[in-house]
Design a protein that fits this description.
4% helix; mainly beta; 18 strands; globular; L,D-transpeptidase catalytic domain-like; SH3 type barrels; nine-stranded mixed beta sheet; five-stranded antiparallel beta sheet; 251 residues; single chain; 1 helix; 2 domains
Amino acid sequence: MPAAAALLVLSLTGCGSPAAPPTTAAAPEASLPPTTPPSTAAVPAVDESVADHTVVATAAVSRVVAHRDPDPASPEVGRFANPIPSGAPLVFEVRSQRGGWLEVALPVRPNGTTAWIAAGTVTLSRNRFRIEVDVSDHRLVVWDSDQVVVDTPVGIGTGSTPTPIGSFYLIELLAPADPGGIYGPYAFGLSGYSETLASFNGGEGVIGIHGTDDPTSIGRDSSHGCIRVPNETIAHMASILPLGTPVVIAP
């Protein structure tokens, strides 16, 4: 997946303004080859019985329209530009399939929103990675199928600005200009939003997973909702995790 040239002032809920705008970083390709490109006449099946992978939909058009039901005449839930404002490709986590339609998780408020998109507007790929965050234990685990590849303590949101609970996915990977700054060398943007802050630093309160310039904040309630990991850990995660990787945050 090529890196984009666009810049974004990172406004993840959790740490404050960066010293300089980060660039989008190249995310690893999905770990298995993509399926046949989209066609409503021959849509690759989403096999929900396979437990060791999820399915990522990457936009193949400049704008994807999401509908409430798997029907082009049903009300629109939203329209999503590709690429997204940071320059990253537009991706969705696929939840289910019905004929030529895919039920996907959306990167919108309220958290947990799903809708249906036409399979002919995306390409599908399999992803064997997933992230699990236990906020009560201040711990993040990355799985590669049934193998743990990352197990680390994390900093999470404070009592007044908690890290939201739910199922999300990675939507972008950013590389701050100063790898020693408040976000560390990399920051993943998630599809979820703060449930206590309507906006943050001029942004929409997007939740992220990122490094930190304050190692003492790891293992504590220390952020405005983002998940802080050690810098060497976020660098490793950035090297292996494709966009669309699911993130489950549990209480």
